[in-house]
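Input/output pair, single chain:
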Amino acid sequence: MRFETSQSLKLGQSMKLAPRMIQSMEILQMPLAELEERLAQELENNPTLEMRDGDGEPTPESPAQEAQDVDIEAAPLRVDEQHGEADFERLDRYEHDNPDVAENEFDEPRQSPREFDDGLSMRRVRADGERDAKMDAFAQTPARGASLVDQLRGQWSLCDVDEKLRPLGDLILQFVEDDGYIRTPLETIADRAPVGVPLNGAVDGELSGAMLSQKPGLPDLERALHALQLFLEPAGVCARNPGECLLLQLDALEDEGISLGWPQATYQNARTLVRDHLDDLMQNRLPRVAEKTGLSLEQIKEGLTLLKRLSLAPARRLVDANERPIVPDAIVEHDETQDRYIAYLNDAHLPNLRINEEYAKLTRDKSMQKRDRDFIKTNLVNAQWLLDAVGQRRHTLLRVVEKVIQHQRDFFDYGPQALKPLPMTQVADELGVHVATVSRAVSEKFIATPRGVMPLRKFFSGGLQTEGGEDLAWEAIRQALRELIDTEDKKKPLSDDALSDALKAKGMDIARRTVAKYRDQLGIQPARLRKVF
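Output:
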């Protein structure tokens, strides 16, 4: 076998995106809440950025006026999507005033703020004694919530239990899944038990918590698991299966239920249904349950009414509270005087940033050391690019929303059943941008309309043409399907075939498989599970 080396020439084409172009696309794709965090982070990390005076809240003027109100620092970049080039005229003017900026932009990585040799601190101190807006914005950023396991460990540490059970409880909590269940068998937990190692993790950099002196036995783990299920809240956490989860909640609810007038027989019937007939209940086979248990349908329905107060994943209450609410990126309102819809961006709470002029002047100070001057220039360029990217996002998003209003006027007038097909390629052609730009602009964005808050992407979909020649979007067809199911006879629910025939009678030629798919997307159960006895 011989190894040889050789040289060759290869001609090819490839497209590379500049780092700043990538940043612009990332900013465009960010939802409002994520963008607010990003700007707050940049405000903290980049000393050349500062908060602009004034609230800067937008007013619901016309879309054209909103676009013109963008500051010069945040004016949109003009991007040639076809060739991947951008007209950075404003940046060129900025670099003309700071000739050393461009050559130092990528020479050094971003550095942390430091003290200048002349004693001037990179971090600004307000001479008038007022609060620093940058530090206020950083201080108002919400802290990340504790995880489910951390919250359960905190509860367990406060429980009055036998000290022999405490390390076993810590061990079991390591196997709690995101929904609060413990699906790992106790035998496996016993085999994986670490001996001589603290179980609670680290506190202030030091290991803490009780430790196991030997491998635990199954009876001891059973006792510890029972204690966890008894003391931890909400009731139902640390269950091993859905049936056990419901039974734990029934035990916790019984005292409250009796005080509210629930008869003891209802709890006994509910326990019987969960313990022995849960699968039949899930399949809505109530007559079969009645035959096996000897209970009447009314008794079974009463037990089901009680079970509907329970949750199959009660532990999610501890983590769902930390999820941030939906914040619409744009708002559409109806102007009754001119019978038109106007749009404006919901960005009043975004940090109103600008470049600090004092730092721009420091770049011309020849007495400053070169590394410090380069550090300022690099951060100035980063700040300018960030403001440009935010301006590009505002400009593009507002134009996309305007097109949605133009093409989906019937939706705003009549509701979801009037949605029309609107491909992203059509909007991209009308705006003169690439379809990927439109896709990023609508990604994870929400819009507040007179019809409610909904995803912006909902307005972009394909569709079909009815027998009458009317164009209907897939979302309009799903809405028609929902209306049919809402108005059906619950004792004789419509099958997927019957739903398909009903839609065809309205001019919507939809196959049964498509009906089943849309029904699943809407979270609607099949006919046998919708039946009411």
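The mean pLDDT is 75. Residues 163 and 210 are 9 Å apart (CA to CA).
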